[in-house]
Amino acid sequence: MTLFAAGTAGSLPKPFWLAEPGKLWPAWRVGGEALAEAKRDATLLWLKAQEDAGLDVLTDGEQSRQHFVHGFLEFVDGIDFVNKVKRGIRDNRYEAMLPRIVGQLGLKGRAHGEEARFCRRHTTRKLKFTLPGPMTIVDTVADEHYGERAKLALAFAELLNQEARALAADGVDVIQFDEPAFNVYGQAVLDWGIGALHRAIEGLACTTAVHICYGYGIQANIDWKQGLGPEWRQYETIFPALAKSRLDQVSLECVHSRVPPDLMGLLAGKDVLVGVIDVATDRVETPQEVAETIGRALAYVPKRYLLPCTNCGLAPMRRYIALAKLEALGAGAAIARQRFG
Question: Which range marks the domain in which residue 104 is found?
Fold first, then answer.
């Protein structure tokens, strides 16, 4: 693989003609076949933009999904999306309207096969596809059937594994499970969170990753982080366990976060997707700043394991700012190859 192979955490802003801008649960602008065509157009636009920015590992930008969790859940039986309930998520960091688990879970069919195959046809570069992790799904639904979070997580892990195996067969090179809930429920991560991920990746021959973060650059997350103190040490208990896990890669934020960078050393033996692009500000990093962040991370992550990335998804960001940040990411990785290669 290319030294300092650059990519994103996953999501990218949806064009205004596809969905409402700046929202995590945006309403689609069109419907029917027009919506399907608009999703394909937006996906193709972002594939080209990522290639032009010099990124090495591309994603579909989650253009076909209204939300990174609910986009998968739409293809699962046993869920009531009509009669949602308002609940606190991420340990009551903020409230959201949640679908209800009302029966036995099962896949209705392929969730993301069309998007994955479409992307594979339109790029020869490495392709990453994101899925919500079992713990984060459990934290983003209202369970009225299974009764135990660990039991529900394993039920979702079984379905995620079915979809992940099919995505690998579609030609996806990296399957990433997004687990922002991991920084909230530390003991549960050790008790059953990583075990559920192991079930989700069972039998996969492609590269597997988990993305952990302190969330999108939305105001609720910014406000929450203000109360976390000068150092964010939530990862300290779970990184040693992730280092021993069967996952290949761990994605986390670095730039402008208060995560002590030495904690990355606890992930020895894993590829570390180091967040060098801040998603909580509209200020665009310079390529030199990106390269400098990579250089600082090299004190804790060997260069063959360091993959520069965005801190989190860029979905709520304005599109032209996100594009400029991707360009800075690609250019900064190129500078780092010359400087540290």
Answer: 32-340
